[in-house]
Amino acid sequence: MFHYKQIKLEAVPKALAKAERYRLLNEPEEAESICHDILGIDPNNQQALITLILALTDTFHQASAAGALSRSRELLSRLSGEYERMYYEGVICERWAKAQFNPHRPSPFAYHSLREAMACYEKAESISPHDNNDAVLRWNACARFIEGSSHLRAEQDSVASEPGFGDEVPPR
Q1: How much is the pTM?
Q2: DSSP letters of 105-155?
Q3: CB of 138 within 8 A of CB of 93?
C-alpha cells in the first residue's frame, strides 16, 4: 500500500477550487481524491465534505454506485448544520433516484427516492436561512421530474390510491 502525501493547510482553498473544477469536468473520482486529501489535514472542512458528497453522487450512474450511496450517506453526520444535513440528504436521494430511473419501464424505487428527497427538502426549507431558496428549487425540480414521466406519474397515482399512503405521508 502507498503512504499518501499530505498537502499543506495553506493549499486547501486552491485544492477545493480544483476539486470543484474536476466535478464540473465530469471527473468525480479526481474530485473525490482531492477531498480526501483535504479531509486528511482538515477533517471537519465543511466545503470538502459537501464537495465529496456531491462527487460521490456524480458516480451514481456507474455499476459500483451502491458503495458511493452508502459512503455519501455516512458523510451526512459530519456536516455541522441541520439544514445542510437535510438538504444534502435530499440531494443524495434525488440523484440516486435519477440514476436509477429508466424512462422505458416502471420505476417504483425512483419514485420513492424522489419523494424521500422532497421530504428532506421540505424539512430543510423549514429551517433554511431567509435568503436561501435552494431546497425549494430542488423540491420543484423533483416535482417536475415526476410530472414529466408517465411511469413516475403512474407510480404516484398507485401510491396515492393505497390506504394510508396519501400525499401527506412521505414514503420511506
Answers
A1: 0.88
A2: S--HHHHHHHHHHHHHHHHHHHHS-TT--HHHHHHHHHHHHHHT-HHHHHH
A3: no
Q: In the structure, what pLDDT confidence band is assigned to residue 35 with cuts at 50, 70 and 90? A: very high
What are 110-114's contacts with CB under 8 Å, separation 24+?
Answer: 110/152, 111/146, 111/152, 111/155, 111/156, 111/159, 111/171, 112/171, 114/142, 114/145, 114/146, 114/152
Residue of 144, 64, 151, 80 lying closest to 111 (CA atoms)? 151
Distances, alpha carbon 130 to alpha carbons 35, 58, 78, 81, 134, in Å: 29, 29, 24, 15, 11
Please give the grid coordinates belonging to residue 159. Answer: 401510491
Q: What gap in Å lies between CA 153 and CA 161, rounded to an integer?
A: 12
Write the burial class of residue 110 (CB in 10 Å: 0-12 exposed, 13-18 middle, 19+ buried): buried
Assign domain 1-79 to its CATH architecture: Alpha Horseshoe (1.25)
Contacts of 5 (CB under 8 A, 6+ apart): none
Residue matched to cell numbers 430542488: 138
pLDDT digits (tens, 9 = 90+) for 62-74: 877 779 999 999 9
